[in-house]
Amino acid sequence: MMYNNKPHFIIKKNLQKSKNTNIYFCDEVTPDILKDVCIRITGQSNYTYEYVKNDYSDDFLEKTYNKGRMALMFYKNIVHYISFSEKNIDGRNSSVQSVPTAFNIYYNSTYPNKKLYYYFLNVQGNAETNYQLLIYRLMNTVGFEFLNANEILRSNIKAYSSIDDIMFNRRINSHRNKSNNSTYITKNDYGEIEIYGKTYGANKYETSLMCYALSGLREPGQVIKLYEILEGNLKELPKSSLNVIGKMGGIDVVPIDRTLEKKIFKGKNSLRSPRYIYNLLSKLGNKHCALCSCEIPEIVQGAHIWPVADIKRNSIMNDEEKLNYAIDGENGVWLCENHHKLFDSHMITFDDKGRVRFKSGMEHRHITYIDKITTVNELPDYILTDKFVEYIWRREHTISNL
Ligand SMILES: [Zn+2]
Q1: Which domain holds residue 134?
Q2: Whole-model pTM?
Q3: How many structural domains does the chain have?
Q4: Are residues 14 and 39 in the same domain?
Q5: Residue 261 domain-assigned?
Q6: Are strands 224-229 and 193-198 parallel, antiparallel or unpaired?
Q7: How far apart (Å, rounded) are the C-alpha atoms in residues 25 and 16?
Q8: Are residues 186 and 131 both part of a single domain?
Q9: pLDDT tens for each residue of the chain, 402 residues long
Q10: How many angstroms is it from 334 CA to the middle of ligand 1?
Q11: How far apart are CA 132 and CA 119, in angstroms?
Q12: 294 Cα to the center of ligand 1, angstroms
């Protein structure tokens, strides 16, 4: 490894589409910006730089265009990896597109003395939304240092201290079905951490970053499951991300497509459908019992309104239709184990206005008990959609036919 007395930058000048767009990285990351970067990292303004072409390669850069919107700065015996934001941050995910790639390049370098940074090329980027703040905090958690965040932003970008810390903050940030998240983190009834992540389009960046952060924060021996929510024929996370997730360790990647869902549906334990849980998370937000507000994810389950057993028994529908009903997020509600059992044994039911009804003829002391643990008497509007009411009807209809 070289030893540079003076900070020296090496930067690939071509972005992926430079030939078409005529926008080159060297036009965005100018020598003036490099100077600012240099001062912020080393405290000095005396530096050298070279913009290199795609065919350039060394121990740190491969023969390709500029991946990860990066500049490398060599100073003394440390390699500084600096990733730059887009100039314009418009779309919700555009700010993070290059971040997992930058992290992958940094992480895959076997050189031990390395540091990772992020630099905002745009002032607006600092006007953070809750979503951006989540991303920045995840970035900080995996090791990005923010070079030019303003003071307020800098004080808000704190690394997450634990997986629970991320889960807690996700809970605050999510506004039920309006949250539009592409990843969810929860725990199953064994207490295992589960990540549900979309893998298409811009969602893959958030999912990758979430995995890096969780892998880094996991307890020794702790296993995390990543359920990749595949849509249609769309692919898994990019190979480069899966590679790094594999190297970081601790995350079991399970691609969830329709073939697997069909297998689960036909099997005995069809309640364990990851797609169903994902759909409930998107509609209802984090696990919390709809009847007592219990938020302990280990004991909160997805309760089918129209039961899977009844769907399976239906003789009119084909398997595809049955599967659609079984995994529909509208066909369910979060219930704690107690309420789930009470619901499944029909001691508790909902009427078509979502009001909670107790089975008639139960012992008075049991009614008193159920009444005491049931703190919600009427389902809120975001649960009680038309489709949900239809499922209540189907549930009751099926019972009357038994
Ligand atoms: Zn409950």
Answers
A1: 4-159
A2: 0.90
A3: 3
A4: yes
A5: no
A6: parallel
A7: 10
A8: no
A9: 567 889 999 999 999 888 888 889 999 999 999 999 999 999 999 999 999 999 999 999 999 999 999 999 999 999 999 999 988 755 555 567 899 999 999 999 999 999 999 999 876 555 567 788 888 999 999 999 999 998 888 899 999 999 999 998 877 655 444 456 678 999 999 999 999 998 888 788 889 999 999 999 999 989 899 999 987 767 899 999 999 999 999 999 999 988 888 888 888 765 679 999 999 999 999 999 999 999 999 999 999 999 999 999 988 999 999 999 999 999 999 999 999 999 999 999 999 999 999 999 999 999 999 999 999 999 999 999 999 999 999 998 875 444
A10: 8
A11: 14
A12: 6
What is the distance in A from the centroid of ligand 1 to the CA of 374?
7
289 CA to centre of ligand 1 in angstroms: 5
Sole residue written with tokens 């405290």:
43
The structure tokens 């970035």 sit at 139
Alpha carbon of 174 to ligand 1 centroid (Å): 21
Tell me the three-class secondary structure of the chain, residue by residue. Answer: CCCEEEEEEEEECCCCCHHHHCCCHHHHCCHHHHHHHHHHHHCCCCCEEEEECCCCCCCCCCCCCCCCCEEEEEEECEEEEEEECCCCCCCCCCCCCCHHHHHHHHHHCCCCCEEEEEECCCCHHHCCCHHHHHHHHHHHHHCCEECCCCHHHHHHCCCCCCHHHHHHHHHHHCCHHHCCCCEEEEECCCCCEEEEEECCCCHHHHHHHHHHHHHHHCCCCCCEEEEEECCCCCCCCCHHHHHHHHHHCCEEEEEECHHHHHHHHHCCCHHHCHHHHHHHHHHHCCCCCCCCCCCCHHHEEEEECCCHHHHHHCCCCCHHHHHHHHHCCCCEEEEEHHHHHHHHCCCEEECCCCEEEECCCCCHHHHHHHHHHCCCCECCCCCCCHHHHHHHHHHHHHHHHC
| The two structure tokens encoding residue 307 | 């039961």
Who's near 42: CB < 8 A, 6+ residues apart? 7, 75
CA–centroid distance, residue 288 to ligand 1 (Å): 8
Domain-ending residue, one of 224, 256, 288: 256
Are residues 349 and 364 both part of a single domain?
Answer: yes
Cα 293 to middle of ligand 1, angstroms:
6
